[in-house]
User: Fold this.
Amino acid sequence: AAMLDNAKLGGGAKGLGGPSVAGEKEALEAQGKYYKQGEGPPLEDLSDAWIANLVWAQSTSGKEYRAAFCGCDGYFETARCAVEFAMTVRFDYDKLPHKGGVLNSVVAGQEWYFKRLANSGLKWRLDGWFAEEELGPPGFDAPSG
Assistant:
């Protein structure tokens, strides 16, 4: 909540940029939480970690759009995106309008990639942003059987 309040007020003393890279690295090293390439935090430390993206866009005619997604920690969501894009290319290839080239996953996968991501457990809102109390990692249903 403090982070959101700080952002609404235009940031703290250092503005929205926050601490310097060197300062943040030093603080993380002091806490034993600075990880080298190929390393990462223990899984139990990630249970309350999450990432959100709140999007605002305006058309050339002035119409405004807001959308949002909220997912687990960045490590998990990177893997989710990679797997869902691989599934899109494998199972929806014949429907994709672009069959080659240098494209990012959204351009290449279009609606089929979005549907896979949306059905994979991410929290989505295409009609606005999440309320503050809705922000946080999505829950997971326990496997049945």
In short: The mean pLDDT is 85. The beta strands are 51-58, 64-71, 123-125. Helices lie at 2-8, 21-31, 74-91, 105-118.
